[in-house]
Amino acid sequence: MSLVVLNAADVAGRGTKTVAVTVGSAGWFNARMTPFLKEVAIPIRREITAVFAREWSRLATAGSYWSGLQRIEIAAAARQARAGSSAGASALPPAATEAASLLGATPARASRSWVESMVADLGSGPYVEIVGVVSRAAAVDTFHRAIGSPLPRLPEPIVGDPTGIHDPAARSGPAWVPMVGGASIVGALSAVPPEAEAQEDMHGPLYLTYEQMQNLEFVRGLSRPQMELVAARTSALNECFY
Amino acid sequence: MLRASSETTGEALDARAITDPSIDPLVDGGRHLIGFVDAVLGGGDVEDSRASLGGALGSDAVVDASGTIANFEMMNRIAEGTGMPVGKGSLVRTEEWRSLIGLDRYRHV
Known about the structure:
The complex is a heterodimer. Chain A is mainly α. Chain A has helices at 8-11, 46-60, 68-82, 94-105, 112-122, 124-147, 193-206, 224-237; strands at residues 2-7, 18-23, 29-30. Chain A has a three-stranded antiparallel β-sheet with strand order 1-2-3. In chain A, helix 5 (112-122) crosses helix 6 (124-147). Chain A is globular, with a radius of gyration of 18 Å. Mean pLDDT of chain A is 87; it is low at 1-32. By secondary structure, chain B is mainly α.
């Protein structure tokens, strides 16, 4: 076990305070000084804790269309909906709160007409950003529940204006929101590139990188058939054909 | 991916377990894995099912299973929220499986 020092901006995305974290053999990460994975009795791969830290930093920082505060309020509304309670007071437009709540708790209820109404109210880019924020926050929370840790507190917002970054090549197609290069799950958020990049960033540490997915004999803690059984059952419980 | 990985590795699989947890999926530790997913997403006793899974397959398996559930919580929301279509080719290739496990009960574009 050894001590390393990180800049807190890497961990929580704010400030410059340095914190010490313990790193064990084989790259295991004991994140006692971060909000993640408290009270966990089994070793967690360092890349998982690290990607959660990156995600919380992204969550706190202005995105393409929403400020850091708004992104946190979107994640909070989704978390409250999953817990079965109504969203608390926020400065979000009502449609943003509705989108966060439905996608957070009951995503299978998202119909074409509902998405079209959200896009009409919010714009396709802001809606796509909500999909990204909510989906990744759900992943972070779900991992904590599964592994037996309290949910991490949401980060404090970082002041800053939305960047407006989007891909003008995104086009309407068979999916319900514009995408770049045709409809695919990898490119689902491609109209807002930072959201697509964040999706890929989470995908690898939690499951497999897009390259590793091609290796059907990949083995880590689980074999591929075991992992895919878990994936398929998860999708079934979510009533998701995907 | 499940069908392809099962065929590639030669690991036995009864895919009906995906939608019917009373069926043994035949995959090594499969019942523990299904029970863990159900507990995490269905509000069951996660602690017991985690201990059961860890006892059967080890702590690294618990981490991988937790990560896979989390990842597909993300991907399912992205697919549902963007109206991700399923290609005609995929529908043709998976017709037999979809029938076997009743997958068509779920909406697809």
